[in-house]
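name: query_chain
kind: protein
chains: 1
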Amino acid sequence: MDNINNEPKALDNESFEDTSILDLFFAPRRFFNTTLKRGNNPYLIAITIIIGISTAIDRFDQELFKVETGKTSMLVNFAETWVGFWIASILTGLVSAIFIWHLGGWWYRTRLKFSGADDPDKYTSRYIYLYASFVSSAPVVLIALIYTLSYSNYIEAYNRDVYLSLIALLFLFYSLYISYSGARKMFTLSKWKARFWLVILPSLFYLFILGAFGFFLQKYNEDQHTSSRIIPEDRIIVSTDNTCQIKLPESWSILKNLNDEASLQVGSLENDAYGIVFVEKKEEMEEQLTVHEYYDIITESMLFLVNNGEIVDSDIADNQEFNIRKGKVYGEADYMDIVYFINIFESEHNYYQLLCWTQKEFDEEMTPVFEEVAASFHEVKDNIQ
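structure:
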């Protein structure tokens, strides 16, 4: 059975100034052993405020996630400008710092008791907790500062960035190791109890939260966009007005709520690739247009849907069934770089718009898939009048 000690272990004679903050990240045992001292520590207050600001930034991420699932959020309005974002983060962070200092310190000390420490010193407990939390919080605030220099607002950064967010996530789990190392250095604990309460249980909690976010987002997308229509064995899907059909690629399904005016909605939620079809009867048009004029109208109108739009025309590719014009429109929509694949099909009685889109970074990957969809496009002759 492990020995129990209610006081911090003896400290080395090295001074606070001789220890670099980098030791916290790379030599945590040395850092805590050489920096911990009783009395007021001005750095501790600043660190607590940084942790509070990081918590406020996490709150922004949670609210933006809610918006992705169709809910509304007042806080997200502050994320539309950097001034609003930082004012909200700092003010909220100052309030959060009070709870972090008291409740966070109390809960960490409680976990130390569960880990084998008998009445652990309050100051030492809070000291280790705050510096370990700083390891995961400092990268979050630093990344937000990088975002400020790189994006027009936090919403754009949230939608565009992947890699920096993953780095912040790694530091979240690394902070558990820092916490464990500091606690083991300053207190005599039961090794396996400490591992459970300071590493394993928090890790499982974080993984559960991440998994829950992913699950609910996927379920929302499926409930919101996946149609109940059954895909036939030949994967040929007929539009709701029975005027046209396409053959679904293997990874695609019938979707809904992409555009209520579309007669056909398909795509792959997993690959973030989508396609819709609009039908316009020539007899209902105010003036008769050639396929080239119709194509120009559609592509020009697409420029109003995106920022920094650019049209890239493709070669004319008529066949025995249709007069065809194709092209791409590149632009920014909802703070994401998007590419639209535009296919205009002119038949004897109708114009068809087959619009497919995905993120610009998947342009090269998805082009063959979109071309496969376009090549499978046909009129349902028996229903054309």
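note: Residues 1-17 have pLDDT under 50 and may be disordered.
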